[in-house]
Design goal:
Length: 419
């Protein structure tokens, strides 16, 4: 095993770590799929053994009681399938991956990150499984490994063809995920889009290979979403990468733009000495945490007057996206926390960014995409509905909001109700 591809994990005492929990879920799913692949191969070996009426003589017959494998990141449950013979000749299925009576894995804590970063859908799956449960995994045949590889690839390909026109998509979050790993001479990047529908459900909509977040790469991603039936969202949230916004203008020209305040804050602070950063950061917070657009504009003007004389580049970095940074004020206040940053993406993949170590060897781009897809799907199962989801239908209907509050036209004038 190439040690340079292993991600350092925390110990068992830190089991609340979200990446650890994702890996545990992924381990359960992977082991189960591997055992099912073993069973499929085992049943294939009996294809010529038939009853007089043509039915298969050996068939699956439920599962043995669920077992817990103790691992370095906590218990992982496994269900081993059973088979039965219809012709009276005894048969027994034994998994090479999870032999009878095994209750403890070997080096799972080290194996899982490597398996996700390099083993999924690549030629090293057998080696990954060997590290997962020890030398007994050598019993896995090449056809079993090939079956697993096809299954992971098919899952990803099926997902990226799924139709999106059954939902009305209200908001998008877009970002480029740099894993810290490298393939050939290029840093690996995945273009990720998360959307929320009018019922408040968040879903990954795209995880695609990208080249330096170029306009062409983002154009292909957005055109793919359009071909799958996605409507024009009301608002898209992302960082200042020009590639995404240029592509959005072409493909979804009616969608408004909201710049991510987290990215913008980091970009602005990069132009000033560290000694100045704490005060400047607070001044930036005063802008986007203001209760109204008027208060935010006043705080923005103060920022310009305070810092432009000594740090003009920092101020210019903020000024160029002024309107796009303030777009959230025209949407329900209950949504502001989600709309001001790309946090839905950052919170899912932040741990991966911090813990991956640069690989000395080449890493397949497909492997990276499948890794992000699988971790993303695990995370998505635990996502809560969008805060203030009952206001999403109003946003879709074009109801106007000012400073986070709904604007309702009445005979007496304008009445504002809290959003």
């Amino acid at each position: 095993m190439n040690k340079s591809n292993v991600v350092a994990l925390s110990g068992p005492a830190e089991s609340a770590d979200p990446l650890t929990e994702l890996l545990r879920q992924g381990a359960r799913e992977l082991i189960q799929k591997a055992v099912e692949a073993e069973l499929a191969e085992y049943l294939d070996s009996f294809q010529d053994r038939r009853l007089e009426d043509g039915r298969a003589a050996v068939v699956r017959n439920g599962h043995h009681p669920e077992r817990e494998l103790q691992t370095g990141i906590g218990p992982v449950t496994v269900k081993v399938p059973k088979v039965r013979s219809r012709d009276g000749n005894p048969v027994t299925f034994r998994s090479a991956l999870v032999p009878p009576y095994v209750r403890k894995t070997r080096s799972l804590e080290a194996a899982l990150p490597w398996l996700y970063l390099k083993g999924v859908s690549t030629g090293e799956m057998e080696e990954a499984l060997e590290v997962l449960v020890g030398p007994d995994a050598k019993g896995l045949s090449a056809s079993t490994v090939a079956r697993l590889k096809r299954q992971w690839a098919e899952e990803y390909e099926h997902w990226r063809q799924t139709r999106l026109d059954r939902d009305r998509w209200v908001y998008l979050w877009a970002d480029g995920i740099y894993s810290g790993l490298r393939a050939e001479d290029a840093k690996l990047c995945a273009l990720v889009i998360i959307g929320v529908n009018d019922r408040g459900q968040k879903h990954f909509l795209a995880i695609e290979d990208g080249i330096r977040e170029s306009t062409q790469s983002w154009r292909e991603v957005l055109l793919g979403l359009k071909a799958r039936g996605m409507n024009s969202p009301k608002l898209a949230v992302g960082d200042g990468a020009m590639g995404f916004w240029a592509a959005l203008d072409e493909v979804y020209s009616e969608t408004r733009q909201q710049r991510c305040w987290m990215h913008k804050t980091g970009n602005v602070l990069n132009y000033v000495p560290k000694s100045v950063q704490p005060k400047m950061k607070q001044a930036l917070h005063d802008i986007w945490q203001a209760a109204t657009r008027e208060d935010a504009n006043a705080a923005f003007d103060r920022f310009e007057k305070t810092y432009e004389p000594k740090y003009p580049k920092a101020v210019q970095c903020l000024q160029k996206d002024r309107e796009e940074l303030m777009a959230f004020y025209d949407y329900p206040a209950r949504h502001w926390q989600s709309l001001r940053t790309t946090n839905p993406i950052e919170s899912t993949f932040g741990t991966i960014r911090h813990r991956t170590k640069r690989s000395k060897g080449c890493l397949s781009r497909d492997s990276m995409l499948h890794m992000i897809y699988k971790l993303g799907q695990c995370a998505q199962k635990n996502w809560r509905r969008q805060r203030g989801f009952n206001y999403l239908a109003k946003v879709v209907q074009g109801v106007k909001f000012r400073d986070g509050e709904e604007v309702v036209t009445a005979n007496q004038g304008v009445v504002r109700s809290t959003g």
